[in-house]
Each structure stands twice: as C-alpha cells, then as structure tokens.
Amino acid sequence: MAQQARMEHEISTGARPVGATTEETAAANVQQMFDSIAPKYDLLNHLLSVGLDRWWWSRTANTFRDVLVRPEASVLDLCCGTGDMTMALYKHRPAVAGAAPVLAVDFSREMLARGKQKFAGNNIVAIEADALHLPMEDNTLNLVTSAFGFRNLANYDEGLAELYRVLKPGGQIGILDCNQPGGIVGALYNLYFKRILPKVGGMISGDAGAYSYLPASVERFPRPARMLAMIRAAGFRNESWTGYTFGTAGLYRATKP
C-alpha cells in the first residue's frame, strides 16, 4: 500500500489541496490559501525552517551569479511570494543605468503586496499573474527561478512548458523546492514535517489546513529522478539536482538549448 501511494505521488500532475478535484479548483484553493496565510508567512518560514530558508535562497542566487551580474539579463522570479528569493537575486544585480529590472510574479495578491514593500526603491517589477499563463512573450528571458512555489502549480508539465516558452535559447531555470529524503533523515524529517510543523504553523497562522497542505504537497511532488525526467521531456538539457541540507530541499537546474 505504501509503495502504491508513493508511485501515485511520483506520477502526480500537479498540486491537489484537499477537496480539489480539477486543476482549476486546485489553483483557486492554493491562491486562497496563500492569501490567507500571507500576514504570518515570513515569520513562519523563518521559524519552521530554523532559519535555513535564508541560506537556501542565498545559495540559489549565488549559483546564478554569472547571469545576474549582466545588466542586460532578463530575470524572472516565479511564484515569488513575499519576495525573499527575489531580493536574494537582486543583491547580485549591477546598480547601473539601464539595467533590466528583476521581474517578480505571483498570483496571490496578498503575498505580492508584502513583496512590494520589500521591493520599494529597487529595480524590481511586481506582476500579479498565473504561472501557467505568463504575460511574457516567447524567448525573452535569460533566467527563471522559483523558490518553494513550483510544487504548488496545478500542472507541473504545463509549468515547465511555460518556462521553456518564455526563455531565450541558452536561458536557464532554477527551481528550488522541498524534497522527501529517505533513510533515517527521512524518518526524522517526516516526524517534524507531518506532526510538529502542521501544529505550530496552524496555531500561529490560524489556518491549520494550510500547514497540513504543506507536507502533503511535498509528499506529492515528484522525487528528483522523476522531476529531472519531466524537465528533460519539456525540452531542457543539462538538467541537474543539487540537494540542500541532507536532501530536505534542493535546486533543479536546466538550460533551454
């Protein structure tokens, strides 16, 4: 039974919050959920990750420094939430006249509103949009990142196809997200992630459902081998996964040929 459940998670097409039976209802439920938890989102991110989230964002941004330092490079932070990954990317942007802005996209208006407060005074443009239907033309971006947001898309294959569409040839993706490790680490991770985190998150945020969805979404998200196969099937090449913090999170990278 456990093996069957794992296989079902491995071939999942996208996020499915409790009660959502279609991609449309899944997207609407996720949007409503993030609007609801936006006021306490940053606090809980830092608390529940024991501060590791800041290191994960910084490490990811450093990985793409060679792209970010180019003034003309077009950069998009997808599912930007309250903008912490966006700000980590922005630290590497050159402060020169005419530099392209960093684009920050999210479909949760409440999350994006908090991101805009961080973006104030910086060369960052916030855009409220659906990750599966981006308002960008084909072949226009050099880099698209997404930190802990991609797994919330209602359809992973369509999400990858959209990233491929908007990237220029030679453009890169960087998808930072949670992972379900195995072995002893996995057992400890499950104890914390499925028992402790939902209780603490629900108590502080006032939305127990949202923090029950979090571990369920990670369990449903494809494991690295499956995700890498999906990335390659979408047309990307040089795909790789680098595990962070004993494999509890990691960065997927790939290039549009």
Ordered list of secondary-structure elements with their pairings:
Elements: H1 2-10, H2 23-37, H3 41-48, H4 52-63, H5 65-68, E1 75-78, H6 84-90, E2 102-106, H7 109-119, E3 124-128, E4 141-147, H8 156-166, E5 167-178, H9 183-205, H10 208-220, H11 224-233, E6 237-244, E7 249-255
Parallel strand pairs: 1-2, 1-4, 2-3, 4-5
Antiparallel strand pairs: 5-7, 6-7
| Percent of residues in beta strands | 15-25%
Based on Cα principal axes, name the global outline: globular
- Alpha plus pi helix count: 11
Uncertain parts: 1-10
CATH architectural category: 3-Layer(aba) Sandwich
CATH topology type: Rossmann fold
The tally of domains stands at: 1
Going by CATH, the homologous superfamily would be: Vaccinia Virus protein VP39
Measure the end-to-end span. 40 Å
Q: State the secondary-structure class.
A: alpha/beta
Query: Can you list the strand order of the major beta sheet?
Result: 3-2-1-4-5-7-6
List keywords for this structure.
Rossmann fold; 11 helices; globular; 257 residues; alpha/beta; seven-stranded mixed beta sheet
Description:
This protein is α/β, with parallel strands linked by helices and 257 residues long. It has one domain: Vaccinia Virus protein VP39 (Rossmann fold, 3-Layer(aba) Sandwich), CATH 3.40.50.150. 48% of the residues lie in helices and 19% in strands. The protein contains eleven helices and seven strands. The chain has helices at 2-10, 23-37, 41-48, 52-63, 65-68, 84-90, 109-119, 156-166, 183-205, 208-220, 224-233, and strands at 75-78, 102-106, 124-128, 141-147, 167-178, 237-244, 249-255. The chain has a seven-stranded mixed beta sheet, with helices on both faces. Strand 2, helix 7 (109-119) and strand 3 form a beta-alpha-beta unit. Helix 4 crosses helix 6. The radius of gyration is 17 Å and the shape is globular.
